[in-house]
Specification:
The protein is built from nine helices and 14 strands. It folds into three domains: 57 residues, Arc Repressor Mutant, subunit A (Orthogonal Bundle); 203 residues, BirA Bifunctional Protein, domain 2; 43 residues, SH3 type barrels, CATH 2.30.30.100. The protein is of the alpha+beta class. The strands form three sheets. It has a seven-stranded mixed beta sheet with strand order 3-4-5-9-8-7-6, sandwiched between helices. It binds biotin (BTN). The site of biotin has 20 residues, from helix 5, strand 5, strand 8 and strand 9. Biotin binds next to helix 5, strand 5, strand 8 and strand 9.
Length: 318
C-alpha cells in the first residue's frame, strides 16, 4: 500500500485530496494520514494543506524497490527487487534466492554492506547510501565454460550506463574493472552455480561508487561525484545500469557474443598494452593481444608463445 501511495503522489504534479486518494486506493482517511507519517519517516517530504490535500515535494535517494521500478521500463531485470538496509554481502542473499528459484532478473540491493566482496579475495568498501551495491540473478542457457562472456557483457553495460548518466567515459581493465584514468570507479563480480554441463544461475554483483567522498574510498578508487563534481541520484544511476544490462543481455541472447566483444574492445584499456597478469598459479607477462570468443585474454609472451587466461588480475607492466 505504501508503494501505491508513493506512485499515486509521484504521478500528480499538484495537490491530491485525501478524498481522491481514499477512493482510488480504497482506504480510510485515517489510514492515509498514517501512511503519510510513515513516508515522512522514510525521508519523503510531503506537503499537507487543509482543503487541498497532499503533495510530494521531495523523495529520498534511497534504493527502495518502488523508487527504482518507477518508470524503469525493463521487461526482465528489476521486476523483483529485494531491498535491504544493511547486509554482509548482497551476493550471499542473491545466491540463496537463486537456489530458491527466484526469477531471472531478481535484484538484491543494499544501502550498505558490512562484508562486501571483491574479486580474488578482496573486499568492497560499501559506505551507507553513497554507492550502489547490488547483485542480479540471471539464468542464461549457457555451458559453465562460457560464463566469462557474461562478465565482459556486464562491464560493457555498466560503462555505457555511466556514460549516459554522467558523460564520464569509463574504460574497462580486463576482465571487468571500470576505471577513470587509473582509478577504479566500479567493479563486477560474477559467481555461478553450475552443474557439469550447464549453468543453473549466475549472480552478477556490481559495486559502483556514486556519491562516495574521497575520505570513504580506497586510495586507488574514484566516484562519479569526484569525477563530475556533482551529486547524482543513485536511483537514476541504478535504473540506467539495469536498463543497459537488460539491453546487452537480451542482445546477447539474440545475436550471441560478437556485438558484446566488439564494444568491449572499443572500451578496453588492456588490449595492445604490455601487461602482467596475476592468477593463483603465478604471473604471465607479455602483450595483451586479444580477447577470444570465450572472453579469455590472449597474451603474447616475449618467447612468442601465446597463452590464454580466463581469470586473474592485470597488473600493468608498462
Ligand atoms: C571487484 O572489483 O573486485 C568486484 C567488486 C564487486 C562488488 C559488488 S558490491 C555488490 C556485490 N556484493 C558484494 O559483496 N560484492 C558485489
Amino acid at each position: 500500500m505504501l508503494e501505491d501511495i508513493v506512485r499515486f503522489l509521484k504521478k500528480s504534479d499538484s495537490y491530491l485530496s485525501g478524498e481522491e486518494i481514499s477512493q482510488s486506493l480504497s482506504i480510510s482517511r485515517a489510514a492515509i494520514w498514517k501512511y503519510m507519517q510513515e513516508l515522512r519517516r522514510l525521508g519523503y517530504e510531503i506537503a499537507a494543506v487543509p482543503h487541498l490535500g497532499y503533495q510530494l515535494t521531495a523523495s529520498p535517494d534511497r534504493l527502495f524497490p518502488w523508487e527504482v521500478q518507477f518508470d524503469l521500463g525493463t521487461k526482465v531485470l528489476g521486476q523483483k527487487i529485494v531491498y535491504e538496509d544493511s547486509v554482509p554481502s548482497t551476493m550471499d542473499v542473491a545466491f540463496k534466492l537463486g537456489g530458491q528459484k527466484a526469477p531471472e532478473g531478481t535484484v538484491v540491493c543494499a544501502e550498505s554492506q558490512t562484508k562486501g566482496r571483491g574479486r580474488m579475495g578482496r573486499g568492497w568498501v560499501s559506505p551507507k547510501g553513497k554507492g550502489i551495491y547490488f547483485s542480479l540473478i540471471l539464468r542464461p542457457k549457457l555451458p559453465p565454460n562460457e560464463a566469462a562472456k557474461l562478465t565482459l557483457l556486464c562491464a560493457v553495460a555498466v560503462a555505457e550506463a555511466v556514460a549516459r548518466v554522467s558523460g564520464i567515459e569509463a574504460r574497462i581493465k580486463w576482465p571487468n574493472d571500470l576505471l577513470v584514468g587509473k582509478k577504479k570507479l566500479a567493479g563486477i563480480l560474477t559467481e555461478l552455480h553450475a552443474e557439469t554441463d550447464r549453468v543453473k544461475f549466475v549472480v552478477v554483483g556490481v559495486g559502483l561508487n556514486v556519491n562516495t567522498p574521497e575520505s570513504q574510498l580506497p586510495t586507488d578508487a574514484t566516484s562519479l561525484r569526484l569525477e563530475a563534481g556533482r551529486v547524482f541520484s543513485r536511483v537514476q544511476v541504478l535504473q540506467e545500469v539495469l536498463r543497459e544490462l537488460e539491453h546487452w543481455y537480451l542482445r546477447f541472447g539474440r545475436e550471441g557474443f560478437p556485438p558484446v566483444l566488439e564494444r568491449w574492445k572499443e572500451l578496453s584499456l588492456t588490449l595492445g598494452r604490455r601487461v602482467r597478469v596475476a592468477d593463483p598459479a603465478g604471473f604471465v607477462e607479455g602483450e595483451a593481444k586479444d580477447i577470444d570468443e570465450d572472453g579469455g585474454l590472449l597474451i603474447r609472451q616475449d618467447t612468442g608463445v601465446i597463452v590464454k587466461r580466463m581469470a586473474g588480475d592485470v597488473v600493468w607492466a608498462h
